[in-house]
Design brief:
By secondary structure, this protein is α+β, with helices and mostly antiparallel strands. It is built from 4 helices and 23 strands. A 6-stranded mixed sheet has the order 4-3-7-8-1-13, with no helix packed on it. Strands 9, 10, 11, 12, 14 and 15 form a 6-stranded mixed sheet that branches.
Length: 436
């Protein structure tokens, strides 16, 4: 019996060896040079200007650190704050937020900040997160710094048709300057249009324009690719320019329609098909490469869904089942009516429910760079808070009516079955009486 049961396993191993599938082998990677050893930290700490649109997940990598430092600590402070107001975001292990009162919407560290491979991740960054971020050690040694500027889009526009020519920069000269040459110029720098967020079906493209300022009076410690250009909310901009309120007008988000065909996918290898045929499976049994996630969320609370592995510069789309959710419809509705939509896609490509309802339960698909990336099965359940009774819920009367109607229907069916059974017995007894 032992030899008979082990024969299929031996045949499978022999087939794998013949096909050359090295599924059991593992080769340890060779020792590589430390990436931090190739880049020395600057002797004079400067701050790299980084501007993002509000709502995105920002990643700030620590580009340099001494090799003997095994964990980093991230420090932050506001642009106009003093050095005494600098706070530590993480402890020396890099996984604990010391000041949890500054975390909005949740007291959980992982909901807003995280440390991965010495990089600081800020989930759904907002304008309140703008400031100075420094990568250092627990001994207050500073290695690398960022001048983070989170800008909120006040102007959102839907472009139904593509305009091939447009200015990449819009300039504005400061008013009230006595000299002929202005002190600064404000312009909107548009990034390239994203790829179509869907393939095979109508999709959308997004273009983001951020506010920048050009001046010869910028602070030298805040550097960018150009020493005379910085984002409008950067700490390099002098306070006398007063761009904090005016810069909101220059931040733009544009959306346009698109339609592209899906690229042909490579067929599965003949070795894999032969192995599946040997095991008794067909090519239709190949697993789908879209991961499935399950999420439960209480009703009447704000819910935010994010697409896995999404980056700020990637094209993201959302579908509810087979129905696409378009940004253009939301922008058109917001321009007509003042009532905000309960379901929308924010500027960070998140699907936001304000708030989530029980009827929102279902299957949602996330597209990433034109391909389906994830399937999210959402269940929104009714949640009763402390001090609330079942009768106080707005859907209580509807639930009672549904239960009563169901009970009445089942009672009617039961009575019909009983009357039918009694009628059949009466007819059978009558027939037997006539025969006798």
């Amino acid at each position: 019996m032992a030899s008979t049961s082990s024969s299929p396993l031996l045949l499978l191993l022999l087939l794998l060896l013949l096909l050359g599938l090295e599924v059991w082998s593992y080769e340890a990677p060779e020792d590589k040079e430390d990436v931090f050893a190739r880049k020395a930290c600057p002797a004079f700490l400067t701050f790299t200007n980084a501007a993002y649109l509000a709502g995105v997940t920002v990643e700030l990598p620590c580009h340099c650190k001494p090799q003997q430092v095994q964990s980093v600590v991230w420090f932050s402070r506001k642009h106009l704050g003093s050095s005494e107001e600098t706070r530590a975001l993480t402890d020396h292990h890099g996984n604990k937020l010391l000041d949890t009162s500054q975390v909005p919407h949740s007291g959980d560290l992982q909901s807003r900040f995280s440390i991965r491979l010495f990089s600081l991740l800020i989930f759904r960054a907002g304008p309140e997160d703008s400031g100075i971020y420094i990568c250092g050690s627990s001994h207050k040694d500073f290695f690398y710094g960022y001048d983070l500027d989170i800008q909120e889009a006040r102007v959102r526009r839907f472009t139904p048709r593509f305009t091939p020519e447009r200015n990449n920069k819009k300039l504005k000269v400061r008013k009230g300057t006595s000299s002929a040459k202005p002190l600064y110029r404000v312009f909107t720098s548009f990034r390239p249009w994203s790829v179509c967020d869907r393939c095979g079906v109508p999709g959308e493209q997004v273009c983001v324009g951020l506010c920048y300022v050009h001046s010869n009076f910028l602070h030298i410690r805040y550097r960018w690719a150009n020493q005379t250009v910085a984002s409008c909310g950067s700490g390099a901009v002098p306070r006398t320019f007063r761009l904090q309120k005016q810069s909101r007008v220059w931040v733009k988000l544009e959306v346009k329609n698109c339609h592209v065909t899906c690229p042909a996918q490579a067929p599965p290898s003949s070795k894999l098909l032969a192995l599946m045929a040997f095991l008794g499976y067909s090519s239709a049994s190949l697993p789908v490469e879209v991961p499935v996630f399950y999420l439960n969320h209480p009703a009447d609370r704000v819910l935010t869904l994010g697409c896995p592995r999404a980056r700020p510069n990637m094209a993201v789309a959302w579908d509810r089942g087979s129905v696409p959710i378009y940004r253009s419809k939301h922008l058109a509705a917001s321009n007509i009516s003042a009532t905000p939509s309960r379901l929308l896609i924010d500027t960070g490509h998140h699907l936001v429910f304000k708030p989530a309802k029980s009827q929102d339960s279902g299957v949602y698909y996330c597209w990433l760079q034109g391909r389906r990336a994830a399937e999210i099965r959402l269940l929104v359940y009714i949640h009763l808070g402390r001090g609330q009774s079942v009768t106080s819920h707005p859907d209580f009367q509807t639930a009672v009516n549904t239960v009563l109607k169901s009970y009445a229907a089942m009672t009617a069916v039961f009575c019909l079955l009983m009357f039918g059974r009694a009628g059949v017995r009466h007819l059978r007894d009558t027939a037997q009486t006539h025969v006798d």
